[in-house]
């Protein structure tokens, strides 16, 4: 890692924090601009160079303020803690149904937010809890949704796979593999049509990358120069299938053929930020681009998968030791004397407390009312009728 200018020692930790841990984490959205008032700017090299397909890649040198590095550390640590807590809640049967955890992949959600604003849109698959937090969602809304409570971000009716925050440009949370990519291209179509000067990030996995609908959506997006960024979160497995067993070419950043692409270290939050900033500018001017984020999930595919039958424990431990996104930022903070190891430990302790408090709060929250069962299914007031199996006796007009 090459650094062109060292930061002076940080004055006090609290002065540097983007989201002071005394306030609820994520009480305001991530934004690179929020760190703009800091005097010191560090120039840090990404872990590995970017590799481009039909495009000159951006520079490896990324600018970051001490405040921004601390916010990256804190935001990723909150996400990690939330997912670990969700794991325990699932095992104690307080969360039921599907549940896919994101620990290991946090740098993608956080780095992406640092490069864009909430006027830009994001749409993703079912591994969506941390993307929701990144968009400014809070822990109580997240845990409530996981538990099917009324205070959840989808009113307790979506569950783990269907987190939404439309007012912050987050369009879910989708369970059908790959289906969110054409929807994302549709969002980008609207952005271009309304001359919004904004973009859509459509995220999908390496497994989804082999689907036909992705190429159909990409074709029309390229034809119409839509401002869409296809982000392949390559965690190297689709359920229990390793990428090499599923894909003839695992170079997902090249798979758009005529569409440019970039391969990015998705475990390096600064590389993600740099790539997303670059892609956003490209998409606004020229249309689609693919970002392949090389990342890793520590948990199994979902809670029913222990995650250790199709990969070795050594592989998981090796990634934790060599590439963990939180540890990478911890090292940067320590090297630049922005905060001490014990101050960082204190932040983590505080985060643990906040997560526990949020869990205690959601347990108080009621379930949705049965009258809500058919609400929010179709656009209100369209008079859509639902029939029972007999098509006669049970009949109601959906609210
Ligand atoms: C159309 C469709 N086919 C199959 C499934 C079952 N399924 C759920 S997740 C998944 C694997 C997807 O892997 P990937 O795209 O790499 O995403 P990751 O889970 O690694 O984030 C499959 C096959 C589904 N939900 N939808
Ligand atoms: Mg995958």
Automatic annotation (TrEMBL):
Cofactor entry: thiamine diphosphate
Q: What does this protein do?
A: The pyruvate dehydrogenase complex catalyzes the overall conversion of pyruvate to acetyl-CoA and CO(2). It contains multiple copies of three enzymatic components: pyruvate dehydrogenase (E1), dihydrolipoamide acetyltransferase (E2) and lipoamide dehydrogenase (E3).
- Tell me which SUPFAM superfamilies the record gives: Thiamin diphosphate-binding fold (THDP-binding)
Keywords, comma-separated and alphabetical: Oxidoreductase, Pyruvate, Thiamine pyrophosphate
Give the source lineage, highest ranks first.
Eukaryota, Viridiplantae, Streptophyta, Embryophyta, Tracheophyta
List the EC numbers from the record.
Answer: 1.2.4.1
CDD domains, per this entry? TPP_E1_PDC_ADC_BCADC
Q: Which Pfam families match?
A: E1_dh
Q: What is this protein called?
A: Pyruvate dehydrogenase E1 component subunit alpha
Q: Where is the Dehydrogenase E1 component domain?
A: 75-370
What is annotated about its quaternary structure and interactions?
Tetramer of 2 alpha and 2 beta subunits.
Q: Does the keyword Oxidoreductase apply?
A: yes
- Gene Ontology molecular function, alphabetical: pyruvate dehydrogenase (acetyl-transferring) activity
Name the reaction it catalyses: N(6)-[(R)-lipoyl]-L-lysyl-[protein] + pyruvate + H(+) = N(6)-[(R)-S(8)-acetyldihydrolipoyl]-L-lysyl-[protein] + CO2
The organism named in the record is Elaeis guineensis var. tenera (Oil palm)
InterPro entries reported for this sequence: DH_E1 (IPR001017), PDH_E1_Alpha_Subunit (IPR050642), Pyrv_DH_E1_asu_subgrp-y (IPR017597), THDP-binding (IPR029061)
In the record, biological process GO terms are: pyruvate decarboxylation to acetyl-CoA
């Amino acid at each position: 890692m090459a650094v062109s200018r060292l930061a002076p020692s940080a004055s006090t930790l609290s002065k540097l924090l983007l989201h002071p841990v005394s306030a609820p984490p994520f009480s305001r959205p991530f934004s690179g601009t929020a760190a703009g008032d800091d005097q010191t700017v560090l120039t840090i090299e990404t872990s590995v160079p970017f590799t481009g397909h039909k495009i000159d890649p951006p520079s490896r040198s990324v600018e970051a303020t001490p405040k921004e590095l601390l916010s990256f550390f804190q935001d990723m640590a909150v996400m990690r803690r939330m997912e670990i807590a969700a794991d325990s809640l699932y095992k104690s049967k307080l969360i039921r149904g599907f549940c896919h955890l994101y620990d290991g992949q946090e740098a993608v959600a956080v780095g992406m937010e640092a490069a864009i604003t909430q006027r830009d849109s994001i749409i993703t698959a079912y591994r969506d809890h941390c993307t929701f937090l990144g968009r400014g969602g809070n822990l109580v809304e997240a845990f409530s949704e996981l538990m099917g409570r009324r205070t959840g971000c989808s009113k307790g009716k979506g569950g783990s796979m269907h987190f939404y925050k439309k007012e912050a440009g987050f369009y879910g949370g989708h369970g059908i593999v790959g289906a969110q990519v054409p929807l994302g291209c549709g969002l980008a179509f609207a952005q271009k049509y309304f001359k919004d000067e904004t973009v859509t990030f459509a995220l999908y996995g390496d497994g989804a990358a082999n689907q036909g609908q992705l190429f159909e959506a990409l074709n029309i997006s390229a034809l119409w120069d839509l401002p869409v960024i296809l982000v392949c979160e390559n965690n190297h497995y689709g359920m229990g299938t390793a990428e090499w067993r599923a894909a003839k070419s695992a170079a997902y950043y090249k798979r758009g053929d005529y569409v440019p692409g970039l391969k990015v270290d998705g475990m390096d939050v600064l590389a993600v930020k740099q790539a997303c900033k670059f892609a956003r500018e490209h998409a606004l001017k020229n249309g689609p681009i693919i970002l392949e984020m090389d990342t890793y999930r520590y948990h199994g595919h979902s809670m029913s998968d222990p995650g250790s039958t199709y990969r070795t424990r050594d592989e998981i431990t090796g990634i934790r030791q060599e590439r963990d996104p939180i540890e990478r930022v911890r090292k940067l903070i320590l090297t630049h004397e922005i905060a001490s190891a014990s101050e960082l430990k204190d932040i983590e302790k505080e985060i643990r407390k906040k997560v526990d408090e949020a869990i205690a709060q959601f347990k108080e929250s009621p379930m949705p009312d049965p009258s809500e069962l058919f609400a929010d299914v179709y656009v209100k007031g369209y008079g859509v009728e639902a029939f029972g199996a007999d098509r006669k006796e049970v009949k109601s007009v959906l609210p």
